[in-house]
Amino acid sequence: MHELREPVAVYGKKKFSIEEYLEIENSALEKSEFYKGEIFAMSGAGLNHNTIAVNMLILLHQKLKGKNCRPFGSDLRAHIEKNTLFTYPDISVVCGKVETLNDDEMNMLNPSVIIEILSPSSKNYDRGDKFKLYRDIATLKEYVLIDSESINIEAWRINNDDHWELEEYTTSDVEINFPSLQISLKIMEVYEGVEWK
Predict the structure, then answer these.
(1) Which residues, other chains included, contact 161 with Cβ-Cβ below 8 Å and sequence gap of 6+?
(2) With the C-alpha atoms ordered 72, 127, 125, 86, is the resulting torsion angle positive or negative?
(3) Is 79 within 8 Å of 85 (Cβ atoms)?
(4) pLDDT tens per residue, the chain (197 residues)?
(5) Are 31 and 25 in contact (CB under 8 A)?
(6) 18 phi and psi angles, rounded to 5 deg
(7) 75, exposed or middle or buried, with CB in 10 Å at 0-12, 13-18, 19+?
(8) What is the pLDDT of residue 11?
(9) Do residues 137 and 151 touch, judged by C-beta distance below 8 A?
(10) What are phi and psi of 75, to 5 degrees?
(11) Count of CB atoms situated within 10 Å of the CB of 6
């Protein structure tokens, strides 16, 4: 549920090892991302962003009961070993056993679905560079972007040819499908309680 600010060095040192980042992060009061030796500060999220995140977690929890998949909120850190990124997806869903980095339960490696809630300061990053980095996750089947300023959901799904395909939802009277989870959610429930400006 956090937004990445413009890349800013949050400590005096220019480059950090993964071990140094984890040591700093595990004792920090605020969350930071890590990528190729650099640490980037994250900021809090607004009311609509948080409303959507809570809605999604509740809906996913209800729909996934009895299935082999579990949703997690933004406190679970994801790590992509292929490109070094450590980040905090707004919502991730893991199917099967949660795999972790060095048996550290703070760093999840195998999400099947990642959901990011778009805010003005994060949407370009979430749609662009972050999606490129997420595509290095071998287990990832779906990447969903939910706009917090209008009814607009972009659902990226990997097809049988290992290509990413986009389906967009722009009205509240339909359902968004999650084929990899074998569930669908009503979009009006995703946005329930959101106050539009």
Answers:
(1) none
(2) positive
(3) yes
(4) 444 443 444 555 678 889 989 988 888 888 888 988 888 877 667 899 999 999 999 999 999 999 999 999 998 999 999 999 999 999 999 999 999 988 888 899 999 999 999 988 778 888 888 999 999 999 999 999 999 999 999 999 999 999 999 999 999 999 999 999 999 999 999 999 999 87
(5) yes
(6) -60, -40
(7) exposed
(8) 52
(9) no
(10) -85, -10
(11) 8
CA atoms of 169 and 13, how far apart (whole Å): 43
Q: Identity (one letter) of the amino acid at 30?
A: E
Residue 189 carries which side chain, given as an amino acid letter? E
* Token pair in block for residue 30: 């605020």
AA identity, residue 77: R
Global pTM value: 0.89
Cα 128 from Cα 125, distance rounded (Å): 5
The residues with which 38 forms a beta bridge, in sequence order, are 35
| β-bridge pairing 77-79 and 104-108 | parallel
Q: What is the pLDDT of residue 111?
A: 97
Q: Taking Cα atoms as reference points, which of 151, 141, 85, 142 lies closest to residue 118? A: 151
Is 135 within 8 Å of 19 (Cβ atoms)?
no
- State which amino acid sits at residue 58: I
**Residues 117/146, Cβ–Cβ less than 8 Å:** yes
Pick from 125, 111, 102: which is nearest to 76 by CA? 111
